[in-house]
Amino acid sequence: MEQAVFVSKVENLKYCDEDFSRLYFGMEFCERLIPDAADLKKVISFVNEKKIDFTLVTPYVTEDGLERVERLLGTLAEAKPGSEVVFNDWGMFQVMNDKYPELIPVLGRMLNKMKRGPRLLNVLDKIPLESVTYYRSPSITIPEIREFLLKKGIYRVEFDNLFQGIDLERCGDEIKKTLYMPFAYITTTRLCLTALCDRPDKVKEVGITPCGHECQRYTFYLKNPIMITNLIRKGNTIFFCNEEIPDNLRMFDRVVIEPEIPI
Amino acid sequence: MKILSPLDSKEEVGELIQAGADEFFCGLLEETWHRKYPVISINRRPAGKGHFRTFADLKEAVSMAKEHNAPIYFTVNEHYYIDEQYDLVLDYVKKAVDAGVSGIILADYGLLTVLKEMNLSVKLQVGTGGTVFNSQSARFYQRMGASSVTLPRHLTIDEIRKIVENSPEIEFCVFIINSRCVNVDGFCTFEHGLSDQSCFPLYRNACMLPYHISLYPQVSAEERDMGDIIREHRFLERQHIWETVHVDDHPCGACALYEFREIGIHAVKIVGRGNTLERKVNDVRFLRTILNLLEEENPSLIDFRKSARELYQNTYSRPCRMHMCYYPEVMEMPA
CB of A261 within 8 Å of any CB in chain B? Predict the structure, then answer.
C-alpha cells in the first residue's frame, strides 16, 4: 500500500516525513488558491531531494484559471516528467491530453460523484437493497466507463472515505483506486460565504466577489442533529472528517493522508 | 435567443407555448425505477411532482409541441449511474427517442460515451451537471458528441463571454430564473428528497437546513472581550444566510439578457420542473416580455436594465436582491 501526504501550501511540507513515498500538492476547490510556479518549483526540489514521487492536484477552473494551471503543467512537464496530475475538470484533462503526454492524468475526487452527504446514513436501513448498492458504488462499476477511462490513458481514480462505505468489488483491477483520509469533500461553491465574512456590511452580498483569502484564517463548524457528524466549512467548500479505516482498505492501492483540510 | 421552459405534462404544452416558450425540457418517472430507487432520482428531480408518468403522454406532448416547432428535450441527467441501473437508463433513452424527443440532456460522461456509440437521431446535450467552467471542457464534451452545453450557475457574465467566444462550434444555454443553487450543482454530493415533507430535516435541501455554527479559531474565554464577541457574531451572521432565505424565492438573471444576446447565447433556461403551471406560465411570460422589448426595441443598456427591474418588481412583487440575482455584477450598474 502506497502512502501519500497531501499539502496545499509550501509551509505544510513539514508534514511530509519518512512515512510517505509520494507527495500530493495543489488545490482542488478554488482557482484563487492555485499555487504559483515558484512554489511548484520549491516543491519539486523538495520531492527530488527526498526521492519520492509527485502528484500535482488541480481544481475546476474558469478560462482565466485554465491559463494559470497550464503554466504549472508546462513547468511540471519540463521539471519532472512522469509526474501525476489529478484533474477535477474535463477541460484540464483535455489540455493535458492535447499538450502534455509526459504527465499522467488521474481522475480527481470531484469527478467521482458518489453521494457524500452524511444525512444518507439515516435512510440506509429503510431503502431497498438496490438503493443501498447505488450509494456504495461508483460509476466505474460500468464496463463502458472503465473502457473509456483506459482508452484515454486514465488508470487511477480518487475516492473520499465515505460513511456509507465504498463497494469496489465490481470495478475491475485495471483502474487503480486512491483513498483520501480523513477529510472528505461534500460540496463546493463559487458563492463563497467565507469571502468577506468579517465585513458586516456584506452579509447578503453573495456572488463571485473579491476576497481577502479569509479561508486561510477562519474555519466554520456546522452542526445539525440530522447529520451524523459536524460539517466543516473551509473556504468555499464543505467537508466532513472520517477517520475510520474502511474494512475493504485492501481494495485501494494508495492512501492519501490529509494532515489539514486541503484549502 | 430561445426560452427553454420546464414541462411536466402534455396538458401544459399549449399554455406555455402561448406564454412564449420556445423549447421544453422534461423528465419521466416509471414504477420500474421508483420501486428500486425511491429516493434516488434518474433525472435530478425527486419522486412526486415534476415528471411525466408514461411515454405515451410524452409522445403526445412531443406531437403537440412540434406543431409549434418547439423541441422537447428529455433529461437523464443524474450526476452518475451504476452498472445495475444502466439497462433501465438506456431503456428510458430509447423510449424517449421513440416518442420523438429532439434531444437528451445528460450530465455523466459515461452515458455520453454510450449514447454516442448508439448513433441516436437526437441531439446530445450536456446539462449543468457536466460542470463546464471553461472552453476546453466544452471542447471535451463536443469531441465526445455533445452539440450543446448548459453552463453552471456559478459563472460571471464575463466568464461566460470568454467560454462562448472560444467555443464557436457548440451551443450554450444559461440559467435565467429560479433555484439559484447555493453550491455548484455538478459538484454537489448532498442528496435531495430523502423523505417526504413529514420529515423536514430529511426533506429540506441540506444547504438550507438550520445549523449551529461555530467559528475556529476561537478566542479563549479568558482573553475574550466584548469586541471579540461582537466580531464573532458578525462573522457568523453571514454563514446563516441560506437558512434565512429560500433559494427559490424568484431568483432572476433577466438583466443579463442584454449581454447574453450580444454574446450569442442560444437559450436561457427557466428552472422549475414540479412548479405549478401558473408559476411556469408567469415565468415564461415575464421573460418573453423582456426579450421582446430587447429584440424589437433595441433599448440602451441602461434603459433595458431599468425596464427589466421594473417588470421583475411588478411580476414578482419583490425588489431586486443581490443574493437572489444570478449575475449580481449587473447590480453595480445604475438603472
Answer: no
Domain-by-domain residue ranges, chain A?
2-183+242-257
- Shortest distance between the Cα of B116 and any Cα of chain A, in A, equals 12
Cross-strand partners of B173? B150, B267
Residue ranges per structural domain of chain B: 2-190+247-332, 206-244
A159 to chain B, closest Cα gap in Å:
13
Give exposure, A67-81, as e/b (b: 16+ Cβ within 10 Å): ebbbebbebbbeebe
Fold (CATH) for B2-190+247-332: TIM Barrel (3.20.20)
Kind of pairing between the strands at B72-76 and B2-6: unpaired
Chain A, 5 to 44: residues with Cβ < 8 Å from chain B are none
ipTM: 0.96
- Length of chain B (residues): 335
Contacts of A105 (CB under 8 A, 6+ apart): A84, A85, A87, A93, A96, A97, A152, A153, A154
pTM for the full model? Answer: 0.96
* pLDDT in the model for residue B218: 61
Question: pLDDT tens digit string along B282-302?
Answer: 999 999 999 999 999 999 999
Which among A89, A134, A225 has the least Cβ separation from residue B137?
A89
Residue A46 DSSP label: H
In this prediction, the residues of chain B whose per-residue pLDDT falls under 50 are none
Average pLDDT value over all residues in chain A? 96
pLDDT of A205? 82
The pLDDT value given to residue B334? 54
Residue with cell 435567443: B1
Answer yes or no: do B215 and A220 touch at CB < 8 A.
yes
CA distance A165 to chain B (A): 15
Domain A2-183+242-257 sits in CATH at: 3.20.20.380
pLDDT digits (tens, 9 = 90+) for A111-144: 999 999 999 999 999 999 999 999 999 999 999 9
